[in-house]
Each structure stands twice: as C-alpha cells, then as structure tokens.
Amino acid sequence: MTDRRPTGRDAGRVPSVRAVRVLLTGAAGFIGSHVADELAARGHRVIGLDALLPKVHRAGSAPPGVFTGDVRDASLLAGLLDGVDVVCHQAAMVGHGLDIADAPDYAAHNDLGTAVLLAAMHRAGVGRLVLASSMVVYGEGRYRCPAHGLVRPTPRRERDLALGRFEPPCPRCDAELEPMLVPEDAALEPRSVYAATKLAQEHLAAAWARQTGGTVWALRYHNVYGPRMPRDTPYAGVASLFRSALAHGEPPRVLEDGRQRRDFVHVRDVAVANALAIEGVLPPGAFQPVNVCSGEPRTIGELASALAGRCGGPSPVVVGGARAADVRHVVADPAKAARVLGFRAGVPFDEGIGELADPAPITSR
After folding, report:
1. Can you tell me the distance from the alpha carbon of 25 to that of 67, in angstroms, rounded to the nearest whole number?
2. By the 8 A CB rule, do 89 and 23 touch?
3. Strand, coil or helix: what is 266?
4. pLDDT tens, position by position, 47-77
5. pTM score, two decimals?
6. In what order do the strands lie in the sheet with 66-68?
7. Residues 239, 264: contact at Cβ < 8 Å?
C-alpha cells in the first residue's frame, strides 16, 4: 500500500546525513532534473552533466549549473569527477528501440557511455554509483500456473494477438496464468534493444563493483510520470502520450484490451529514491538492484480513463493490437526498497494524475 507521507523536500530526509558532492549525469532530463532538485533541497552539492540530445531537449540549452557534454568524453569526466563522492547516472537513450537499426545508437549512449564513466570513476578514485536502471530488464512479469507453479511465459504468439488473446499462456500446458509481483531476483529477459542495453549497464556496473570494490545501487524504475515529462518525442512514455492526445482534443488510444498492468510511480518519489541511495551505505563490492515503484498496480486502461476524466476530454478508445516488444503485465514488488533503502512511494495516484492533467507541468525538457 502506498505511504501518504510527504514527498519532495521533506520525504525520506535524513537530517544527520553528511552533505556529499554528486556528479549527476542526465541532469537536464525529466528524472534527472527532479533528482537535482531533491539533492539540492537536502543540502548536497550537485555537478550536472547533460548531452542535451535534440530528440528530447528541444530548447537546446542547459539549465543553470548543468555542463553541456557527453558522458563518453573521458577528458571532460576527468575534470568533473575531481572531488566527487558519488555518481548518480541518469543519462541514457530511452524508448522501446523497436527498430534494430537503432541498436548502435542505444549501445553507444547507454553501454559505451556507462563503460567510459566507470573507467573514469576508477581513475578518479570515485567508488560509489547510483545507476538508473529499468523494469524493462525483466521482460515479462512473474506468472503462476495453477498446475505448474511459477513459470516463465514465452513471447506471445502473433496469431493469439491477432485474435485478441493477450494473456500469455503457460508454456507447459497452455493454461491462462496468474500475474504476480516481480521481485528483484526474478529472471531477467530483455525484449527490446533498449532493454538489452539497460541490462548491459547493470552487468558493467556489477563487474566494476566486483573488480574495484566500488558499490552500486541499481534503481529499476517502473513507469515514471509527472512534471517535465518529455512530450511528442521518442522519449515520451504512455502517460505523456495519453496527455498529448487529450491536449489536442483526441481520445487516448489504448493498445490491446487496456487490461495490461503496470506500476506508475511519480517522478518526485523517484527523486527521493535516488537521494536515499546516494545517502545509503553498501559494503565494498556490492551491487544492489532495487525496484522503484508505487506498489499499487494499475491497468493502462485505468490510466487513460483517469487522465481523460481529469482533463475533461474524450473517453479512451481501445484499439487492440500489440507491439512486438510489449509485455503483458509487469507489476513490481516494493518490499525490498522499503527494507534496504527505506523507500516508500508517497504521491497517491489520484494526486499525481490530477497534477499531470494540468498541461503546464508537461514540457519538452
């Protein structure tokens, strides 16, 4: 159940925590800018870096205090890492990556960029990393078959999707499966180019930790929404796509039957999770993956209906169909985040959707 405690400046605050110097990559982005705000409110010193990729940063200029540059520039990193205590790595090329022709760009930004950053951290003697990972590393969620217990479904069949059969069947008996909460020790099976690069980031960071004695928090974000969401770009998430349609007087178009389940977590809660990880302590060589989620599953149809209702727009239209890399249900288990990080989401869904319904917070930033 979602905790309704305050978020942002007051949530998760640890008054006795020593202020640290943080290199924040992707600092001008949707999530990164909120992380920067949260860290500054807690008294930490933030050095921001952002490549300002045109596809997401249409304004083309960095906010005050953010250096413009590429995380793959080792000489730039050498200067920025001087005196840094911890790196918070948000920079990434995001999206489904459905076209395999995009694979070199995804690998270059996400994986080569992470490798260059880790090498630069080692040279600079910086041994603490907070990594922005993603729910996409899981692929499909966790499922239970009535006859065979926990099973791993195979990718959904095109013929089933064409007939409107969206639930993945048991790979052993073809029975309908029950979706379960996904814990951090679930099998990892990326199903898109983007997902593959996010898992590769985790592997690189884990290897770096083992080889250097560094520490890594890998924060597996679920569906993040809120102010400053990218709009009308390849970086836009489903909530932003629905909001953009409503802003144009059009109904949100919901794929499949609208019953696919996700966990929508507000961006200010995600910023708090990052701050807690930056302030947290791990033993040398530790790699700690953590779901960052609300703990309250919602269907895509519920999201579309809630937004349409708050915007006073047309009702959602269920259009069927499914994209090749889409999965049916991914619903996170929040227990570990509460246990090891002290994180519980604090922004209720209705409050967050009401905020998103206001067109002002959504920007191209």
Report:
1. 9
2. no
3. strand
4. 999 999 877 666 656 788 899 999 999 999 9
5. 0.91
6. 66-68, 45-50, 21-25, 86-89, 128-134, 215-221, 287-292
7. yes
